[in-house]
Amino acid sequence: MPRQMFDHKQILAWLLMGLVVVFMGCSATEQPDSPKFGIVIHGGAGTILKKNMTAEREQAYRQKLTEALKSGYAVLDTGGTSVDAVEAAILVMENSDLFNAGKGAVFAHDSTNQLDAALMDGKTLNAGAVAGVRHIKNPIHLARLVMDNSRHVLLADNGAEKFALSQGMELVDQKYFFTQRRWDALQRALEKGAELTETEKHGTVGAVALDKHGNLAAGTSTGGLTNKQFNRIGDSPIIGAGTYANNATCAVSCTGHGEYFMRLLVAHNISAKMQYGGMSLQEAAETEIMKDLVDLGGGGGVIAIDRNGKIATPFNTPGMYRGQMVAPNEPVVRIYSEEQED
């Protein structure tokens, strides 16, 4: 049988058809995944028990946490940065009197409100923080300005407020922060001659985020401890103690008894356990909160997200106001320890 001959045009056509089939097959089975992005928030940890919560108040917390989540997530969903998302989420909580930050800040021993905040960019390791400010409506925004528009990381008290004025921020009167609930808490503390019991220690807010560009950020804002004295500063504005972000590992925001978090450098330790100890985010966070912090005698929790979008929210107290929203999932908000994590 004579060998069939094919001209070069036929061969070229078949080759092209084959390439099209191969390409279509690859497109169907090997499409790259959508970029992972998401946000996690907290509204403080402590003795938060369902039996002590009215249905109305619980609903108010869940609604405000959901609002904060959606505000931060909207930034990420439209391609915004993790830093912008963290700031947006925290602004919502600072503007609510439910939390011990911004509007709902607790009173110090001298009947003033003294606020702290920090923000960190995991891409550049740039950070900004303020401590002991008394006339700043949104301390997280001032922390952002310190990070973006100064050579410094941490500004305090009057100096921080002078910087705020130089940046065009308006100062608010202390009466803006007055809430009857926080005032009554101070009176109880003064009667006892001490800081409040564990049942009344919660409310610090924080957020961590991963954006579509793979960048992490973390932020924390607080009014500190009720009846605190001598311009006490906690862990929230201390980079590495209460707030930390590094694209190589994770972003972390802490809440709890700050003195213990400062001694352990909890936020950075979680990152270090991942970077140098080879731990997963969950292992690192749980070891730090459920063992190391407990061994030292500290109470509290963290929220954290890693560069792959994995989340950890361990806490060693009866409750922690917390929520998460990671694409493509709906927002999830939890308060009590008995509410199961994913």
Describe the structure.
The structure is a single chain. Helix 2 runs antiparallel to helix 3 and helix 3 (82-94) packs antiparallel against helix 4. Strands 4-3-2-6-5-1-11-12 form an 8-stranded mixed β-sheet. Strands 7-8-9-10 form a 4-stranded antiparallel β-sheet. It is globular, with a radius of gyration of 24 Å. The protein is built from 9 helices and 12 strands. With 342 residues, the protein is of the alpha+beta class. Residues 19-32 have low confidence and may be disordered. It starts with 7 loop residues before the first helix and ends in a 6-residue tail after the last strand.
- Backbone shape: globular
Provide the β-strand percentage band: 15-25%
- Uncertain regions: pLDDT < 50 for 5+ in a row? 19-32
Summarize the amount of helix as a percent range. 25-40%
Terminal CA distance: 69 Å
CATH 2nd-level architecture: 4-Layer Sandwich
The whole-angstrom Rg is: 24 Å
**CATH fold category name:** Glutamine Phosphoribosylpyrophosphate, subunit 1, domain 1
CATH class division: Alpha Beta
Number of strands: 12
**SSE succession:** HEHHEEHEHHEEEEHHHEEEE
Query: Largest sheet, order of strands side by side?
Result: 4-3-2-6-5-1-11-12
Q: How many distinct folded domains?
A: 1
For this structure, what is the CATH homologous superfamily?
A: (Glycosyl)asparaginase
Summed over residues and divided by their number, the pLDDT gives a mean of: 90
Distinct helical segment count:
9
- Which sheet architecture does the biggest sheet show? 8 strands, mixed
Structural class, by secondary structure, is: alpha+beta
